[in-house]
Amino acid sequence: MAVTVDDVKGTLHDFQELDDDEVNKVILRAKRQAARDGLEDDDLDDGTIDFARHLLFVSQQMGYGAVQTAETFGNTQTNFDKLKGNDSFLLDYNALVDSAGGGDSWGEVWTE
Hints:
mainly alpha, two-stranded antiparallel ribbon, globular
């Protein structure tokens, strides 16, 4: 199956207002990364969706700046660390690559 904008947006509230052309560009980038990481068939589609969501999520969050922790009137809020790549979409993608991908982009070698 070819991954679509609807596949990436899913039912995720934060992604519904994103421009379809921009999402399509991210899908192409995510598919190239997933293929380089050795994913194939259904895993390639799943990895493309996970990595596209990761890219879109980080892009959205960077709009808030690189704030990791904020404190106001004694209340502290800690966000995920955007630079450590620990958002749930990337964690899912990395788990898929670890279980199903090659991750080394070596390709197959045949000898006669």
